[in-house]
Amino acid sequence: MQLSQLKFHVLAFTFFLAALSANGQGYLKTKGHIIVNEKNEKVILRGMGLGGWMLQEGYMFRLGNIGQQYKIRAKIQELIGPEKTQEFYDAWLTSHTNKLDIDSMAAWGFNSVRLPMHFDLYTLPVDQEPVAGQHTWLEKGFALTDSLLNWCKAHHMYLILDLHATPGGQGNDLPISDRHPEKPSLWESEANRDKTIALWRKLAERYANEPWIGGYDIINEPNWGFEDPEDKRGTKETKNIPLKKLMVDITKAIREVDKKHIIIIEGNGFGNNYHGILPAWDDNMVISFHKYGNFTDAGSIRNFLDLREQYNLPLWLGESGENSNNWFTNTIRMVESNDIGWAWWQLKKIGINNPLEIKVTPGYQAILDYWSGKGPAPAPAEAYRALMEFVGNTRLENNIYHKDVTDAMFRQVVSDKPIPFTPHVIKDKAVIRAVDYDLGRNGIAYNDLDTASYHYTPGVNTQGNRGYAYRNDGVDIRREDNGFVVFHIENGEWLQYTAQVAAAGNYTLQVKVKADTDSTGARLNISSNGKVLAGNVAVPSGDKEWQVITLKNIRLSKGENRLRVEFVQGGCVFSEIAFERK
């Protein structure tokens, strides 16, 4: 989507934004099971995490084979040298997240932002301190946070500070904390723990009187075996004594300078193992949990609902996402119905399952190919140009906006009405692309048998959009030479297109399809407003080249037509339908 279109979409949500902003009234605090503002009104946090800005995780940029940010930086330095690498990272911090990002998030419906912080933007690592045991404060991280807070305040959005990468690193999942495994971790170094405590005291001192700071998410996703070193993920720990002690010490340091803001805690095992952590040690505390790749019913979070009841504390889904639109809608509906706010992960990266997609340039792809052993090393000047071009592509005005994602996170949560993905007006001639089916829930705007990934649920091997292109529904879409097409079509799946027909009459339809790999006998129905226009239409079998099926004398009514293409038997690839009035 171009910037002009994005601005139009932003303006379209002005009234929605005004309604949400009314909920933001001063400091947040806990009240039994819920979070309230200073007017004692319930607040449901609807947020997005800014992953990739202060902390690069390799998978976000197709660098999963490299992993941690410090390794990515080293790879870049090998290509372009230290000075230009510093230029790259300086440009990254000023380009990746800007005021326009926050303006857009507010317009889409978000009322909060979760900032994943890398400690090294705020203070030196312990092994680089000029005087051991002292803390050198770096203005860069604080200045970036100040700017972000001001952008949020302008829209009455709460900013939640999340220490995503602690000094030394808080777990065995190395990329999420940019951990150097050859150095002492957070848990193996008292100096790292002291620095973590001091950093939180410094942050709390700076923001103590800022009501639009929503809370302090003090340690992101600890994953460490304290009792059993072989428990690498920390999911089996039964006591979590070092984790609780550090969180208590951080809370004490915060409360020395800030009595107002919520303290958000995360258990071991990526935020979900609370054995030995509770009861609360502060009267303004929230339990955070993270949810990925499992079912979307209340049973999937039953253990956290039980913790809420037992300890009378609010819950916050502090991180979730990385799935399909159908999964997003169902998860958000489920948690909000239980008075639980949420923060999705993440605003932008390479890929379709976030509001904004960073485009891959040919130059950046050449660098990826080199790093993965599939191509030659680019010359330093060419590598520098490609990397800076990629930095430019992180800016919102150069991103691809996925309106299907934000529609699933907000409108579809409260409405089951399908709406057009793009306007379809049929006059004398028109073409509707297969991939431009309506926006809406599965079973209403489209019907797909494989709508989400449940990769953390044993025995459930679904994945959603198998082509990972164009849209984030369960519909399988891939790019071919002639554009995006729908493939892997199964029996009973269908797509709906809301179109405005200018004049009633007989039309000739030309359906562009081809047989899928090793498929035979695909058949489809075409209907409008529930009335079948063409039934049991056969797709030429065994032919992998594009074919055009011509259907004559198809009667269309004037006005809104909800056209549906239903695959009675799947096994074909679908490109488009052309209409011509006769």
TrEMBL record:
<feature type="signal peptide">
    <location>
        <begin position="1"/>
        <end position="24"/>
    </location>
</feature>
<dbReference type="InterPro" id="IPR041342">
    <property type="entry name" value="CBM35"/>
</dbReference>
<keyword id="KW-0136">Cellulose degradation</keyword>
<dbReference type="InterPro" id="IPR001547">
    <property type="entry name" value="Glyco_hydro_5"/>
</dbReference>
<keyword id="KW-0326">Glycosidase</keyword>
<comment type="similarity">
    <text>Belongs to the glycosyl hydrolase 5 (cellulase A) family.</text>
</comment>
<dbReference type="GO" id="GO:0005576">
    <property type="term" value="C:extracellular region"/>
</dbReference>
<dbReference type="Pfam" id="PF00150">
    <property type="entry name" value="Cellulase"/>
</dbReference>
<protein>
    <submittedName>
        <fullName>Carbohydrate binding module (Family 6)</fullName>
    </submittedName>
</protein>
<dbReference type="GO" id="GO:0030246">
    <property type="term" value="F:carbohydrate binding"/>
</dbReference>
<keyword id="KW-0732">Signal</keyword>
<dbReference type="GO" id="GO:0008422">
    <property type="term" value="F:beta-glucosidase activity"/>
</dbReference>
<dbReference type="GO" id="GO:0030245">
    <property type="term" value="P:cellulose catabolic process"/>
</dbReference>
<dbReference type="Pfam" id="PF18099">
    <property type="entry name" value="CBM_35_2"/>
</dbReference>
<keyword id="KW-0378">Hydrolase</keyword>
<dbReference type="InterPro" id="IPR050386">
    <property type="entry name" value="Glycosyl_hydrolase_5"/>
</dbReference>
<dbReference type="GO" id="GO:0009986">
    <property type="term" value="C:cell surface"/>
</dbReference>
<dbReference type="InterPro" id="IPR017853">
    <property type="entry name" value="GH"/>
</dbReference>
<feature type="domain" description="CBM6">
    <location>
        <begin position="447"/>
        <end position="580"/>
    </location>
</feature>
<dbReference type="InterPro" id="IPR008979">
    <property type="entry name" value="Galactose-bd-like_sf"/>
</dbReference>
<dbReference type="InterPro" id="IPR005084">
    <property type="entry name" value="CBM6"/>
</dbReference>
<keyword id="KW-0624">Polysaccharide degradation</keyword>
<keyword id="KW-0119">Carbohydrate metabolism</keyword>
